[in-house]
Amino acid sequence: MNPSTLRINAERFKTNFEALSKIGATPDGGVHRPTFSQAHLQVRAWFRELAAEAGLEFNIDSAGNHSALLQCADPEAPTLLLGSHLDSVTNGGRFDGAIGVLSALEVLQTIKDAGLYLPIHLEAIDFTDEEGTLFGLMGSAAVAGKLTPQDLLGLRGGRNALLSGLSRAGLTEEGLLMAKRQSHQTLGYLEVHIEQGSRLIEAGADIGLVTSIVGTNSYRLTFLGRADHAGTTPMDARLDAGQGASAFTLAARQQVMRNYPQCVVNIGSMTLEPGAFNIVPERACLSLEFRAHDEDTLDQLERALLELAEKEAQRFNLGLDIESVGAHQPALMSQQIQDVFHRAAKSLNLKTVPLASFAGHDAQSMASICPAGMIFIPSVDGASHSPREYTEWQDCVNGASVLLHAVLSMAIG
Amino acid sequence: MNPSTLRINAERFKTNFEALSKIGATPDGGVHRPTFSQAHLQVRAWFRELAAEAGLEFNIDSAGNHSALLQCADPEAPTLLLGSHLDSVTNGGRFDGAIGVLSALEVLQTIKDAGLYLPIHLEAIDFTDEEGTLFGLMGSAAVAGKLTPQDLLGLRGGRNALLSGLSRAGLTEEGLLMAKRQSHQTLGYLEVHIEQGSRLIEAGADIGLVTSIVGTNSYRLTFLGRADHAGTTPMDARLDAGQGASAFTLAARQQVMRNYPQCVVNIGSMTLEPGAFNIVPERACLSLEFRAHDEDTLDQLERALLELAEKEAQRFNLGLDIESVGAHQPALMSQQIQDVFHRAAKSLNLKTVPLASFAGHDAQSMASICPAGMIFIPSVDGASHSPREYTEWQDCVNGASVLLHAVLSMAIG
After folding, report:
1. Beta-carbon contacts of residue A195 (< 8 Å; ≥ 6 apart)
2. Which of A235, A264, A289 sits opposite B235 (nearest CB)?
3. For A311-359, what is each residue's pLDDT tens digit?
4. Is any Cβ of chain B less than 8 angstroms from the Cβ of A202?
5. Percent of chain A with pLDDT over 70
6. Domain end residue (candidates: B295, B328, B361)
7. A15/A87 same-domain check
8. Is the Cβ pair B358, A231 closer than 8 Å?
């Protein structure tokens, strides 16, 4: 057969997607599958069964990453990894991550069903905790050997959530730290993902060729004041932690919009303690996340935001506790793989456009041990991390199809 | 005996206070007894036992208010109520409310032990939910007939907390609504309380004669935006509910300090949803409480703050949901009872000073059905609603002693 005529099984792909969307489904059409939640453990078991039904081998590494394998006869052959993740953010959407894992699986099934012999091993991988319920890009960072014992002490989700989650999943910290793969065994890493923005639709393009992935730093900031009676304590005698946190929340946005127009910042959660109507807040704890496309800018932005937090704390006579809870360096995608994706898209008459990614992805971790590449498919209204997340089914098929032909191109030229 | 020589049993009073402080004690020296929490149910049972040990009758009304009774022979005689509350705020202090209830009980015991016959009934009462875990001044508002079915639909603590709390305590909504006492049976209401401010100490006074009690309104405000990916959504395309809530938090304080210098405002809690590092907050829910000493000012301040919330919501293109969750009108204390307290203090060589109360108190509810009066005793550093809350023991004894002689004066002149 001529590999260039090979096509994925769009019906099977869709059946799998619909089954997957039911696991952890929310009433508003999204999914809720935070890492190691019951729904996430359920989706992991489902993926394992699906691989078995497809007649593929199954592997779980010491970081809990799940893989379906299509191996060639030569044990010394390198492996080409395809994948994404099946966890979701809190009340997230159905497409984020899911399309990447199912595209990878569909590619392996298509090649297997065609009886096509490739001189490399193929692996469809579901990485653990991409979204950062615990750490973010955790499974891929483990595979890339980038996870340190220090990382596991200060995490976005807190250490207790890590320990109880690992225990529920039957995993260990030691396992996370010894999951590194060897570069020479890894031919590359390819990922299909929804854009989570609206640039593809604005450009009238089908496929985004990802050029680089943003770096993301996360902090937990706690402004420290004093609990007092909210009636009897004069306004000017209060040490109100909520004032410092609110002032920082406003100023951080202004700072980024004014001085770092290529960057983004988010204060996604805030808690005031003790949290009563009639008590001046003693502690205000917020989660801070910011992103930049190069390391220098990321470092500058970090300094600017932490200085701002200090300044607002001082303005209201508050203490400030700064805890780093995760850093993911920016990464360039392989030019060679961008070219492979471009040619594959062109052979399918799909229009491509190069894009930088403002979302973190597992390809970012993988880029440090092998050539890594990603394509984006369009997100309607750019919505993501929300039940409003939506991608036209034809675009999902396009993504899986480009992935298939990129794999064939890398395997047999 | 000459009633003017009667003295409370300071040792017994202290023993009771120390036992009480252990119930719901926190490691930092405070207490945590929110309404109908386990510790609160425990303290209620403890008070009941203490009344029994003192040989006093015990009564619980349909609003769950606990009373120890020292009745005179004439069933038609009016009742003089003395009291306060045994619930606490979240991680509160040992003195707030507790000193008032124990002073009341000590006065009854002292009069009983002395075999003194008074021509009135005395009642030492522990009012339910003074602090507002559920509604605030709930037990006294019920006794005053001020609680409406509408009040029980929108409360500071939320309706679920009310229903589950009532169930734990064996109480009902119907009971709350039918606990009103008749004015003609009620001679007056007297309360001893810590100042929760530092004006007494600054004035070098022992006893504060409360002239009026502040009115307090409470709202739950929810700013409504849109959940989006915190990386891929451009800063200027976000509908970030946290920005509106933070801007309001800052502006409310500025508004009050600039235009309402006699008033106070507090944003005591804030929650961002869905509450993840990497999701733009869709909802920001905050608790708003503000206080003024007269109704006109309270109304003006209410309009000003709600307009401010609308303005900040519009500035960030957010929706706004406004829920009233409790209003307590300001109340004047009885001039006659202020005079009685003043004379009682003078007879004990204690220095008094008149003070308006910035804290809400059960006396505020009671003022609508009978002459009501309060005295304050000094709070070290003015700290309250905090484990730092502290009052010198001699000041507690002074408070109970003034209460005793005020009671004797009202009963026998």
Report:
1. A208, A355, A376, A377, A378, A379, A382, B232
2. A264
3. 999 999 999 999 999 888 999 999 999 999 999 999 999 999 999 999 9
4. no
5. 100
6. B328
7. yes
8. yes
